Amino acid sequence: EPWQDKQRRLRQRLRRILPIDVHRPEPLGVPLRPPADALLSAFCLEAVSPDRAAFQRALTHVGNLLRPGGHAVLLGALGDARLPVVPLRESDVREALEAAGFELRELRSYAMPAALRTGVDDVDGVFFAHARK
């Protein structure tokens, strides 16, 4: 279907768009009321964090948006990349989630085949994490 129809339907369903700064203890500027049931981050936190410590703090900050028992689904880059991202390993993701107060439910990582390491997809691998607050 035409992209204009998809755009129209999406705009009808959106209630609001909130600016977020994951490096602030209150990423939205104020506590989220009620807290969220779930959050999704896809290739974001490692891209906006200058180092592993900032990545872990960002996880803590976004975790504050969740209700107790809320779920986080994270997708991200592993290893070095041409674009500036924190060069994470699977163990870094595991440790950061634990330090941020999450219970890790599932963590999988996949090596990026050499043939797919082109353009912005030049990372060594990707991770998928499901964690619970």
Draw up the topology in text.
Blueprint: H1 3-13, E1 36-42, H2 45-48, H3 52-63, E2 66-78, H4 90-99, E3 103-111, E4 125-132
Parallel strand pairs: 1-2
Antiparallel strand pairs: 2-4, 3-4
Helix pairs in contact: 3-4
The value of Rg in angstroms is 16 Å
Give average pLDDT, whole number: 89
Strand order of the largest sheet: 1-2-4-3
Strand content: 25-35%
**Terminal residue distance:** 38 Å
- Helix-strand sequence: HEHHEHEE
Number of domains: 2
Low-confidence stretches: none
Major β-sheet, in short?
4 strands, mixed
Specify the helix fraction band.
25-40%
Could you give the count of β-strands? 4
Q: What is the structural class?
A: alpha+beta
Instruction: Describe the global form.
Output: globular
Number of helices: 4
